[in-house]
Amino acid sequence: MDPFAEFIDSIEDAQHRARVVEVLKWVTDTFSQLKPRLAWNQPMFTDHGTFIIGFSVSKKHLAATPEEEGIAHFKADIETAGIDHTKGIIRMPWSQPINYNLLQKMIEYNIRDKADIETFWRHKN
Questions:
Q1: 5-113 domain in CATH 3.90.1150.200?
Q2: Over 80: is that where the pLDDT of 125 sits?
Q3: Where does the record place the YdhG-like domain (predicted)?
């Protein structure tokens, strides 16, 4: 069974639901080594048990959460791309195309950076 089926079915707006399916399928196809998982009612992907990226939805956007380190490492790229963000999430408006190039860089970074991490989250310094 698709681990994200219940989450996807709960998205009322058909266009938003289609966008979420598109992004989750892209992650699955691009990073087949990642394990899909639904936790805290959010779709996420892990590698050897450690968090790589998660997604959530709101009325105005699809959010990606590559952990604070993932945001900090790509802050200049995020701002150059004109993507709204906080220290923990990037907000991708429903009305704009997904910046797959940036998502790919963030996911690849987290996979490399967390290769030796054995916990779910990074340790806070």
A1: yes
A2: no
A3: 16-111
